[in-house]
Every structure is written in C-alpha cells, then in structure tokens.
Design a protein that fits this description.
The chain is α+β, with helices and mostly antiparallel strands. It contains two helices and four strands; from the N terminus they run H-H-E-E-E-E. It has a domain of 47 residues.
C-alpha cells in the first residue's frame, strides 16, 4: 500500500514539477545517479537512461524496475 511518505510516490510528484532547466539533471549525474529523459525521437513509452559515465540506454521504466530495450 502506498503512503503519503512513500519515496517513489514523491519522486513521481517531483518529476511532474521539473522544468526545462537541466540543473537538477546535472546535479544528479555529478552525484553519481543516473537520469531519465525523452528526446524528440524517443519511441512512445520509452525513456533514455543516462549514467554519470555517459553510457545511455533506451529503457521502459516501471515501478518494478527498468527493462533495457537497447544500448545507445
């Protein structure tokens, strides 16, 4: 059961408030965390997952985890 203090639920709420400034993404990468985003050519239902070392994967994200479609 999800609660008001569930960190995953908070993450989804925070992602909904992200604007076009990439400062938060750069900070996450600098802190060693991967980021998720979409490009104009990203197929529907998929996201690009970028790691701090520059690796990128096309993934289908779900609450159960990432399903890697292919390495970019």
């Amino acid at each position: 059961m999800k609660t008001a203090h569930d960190p995953i639920e908070q993450l989804w709420r925070d992602l909904g408030r992200v604007d076009s400034d990439d400062t938060a993404a750069r900070e996450a990468l600098a802190a060693g965390m991967p980021i998720y985003y979409r490009e104009r050519t990203t197929p529907p239902g998929l996201q690009v997952k970028e790691y701090p070392d520059g690796r990128r994967e096309l993934v289908r994200f779900s609450r159960q985890g990432d399903d890697v479609i292919r390495t970019l």
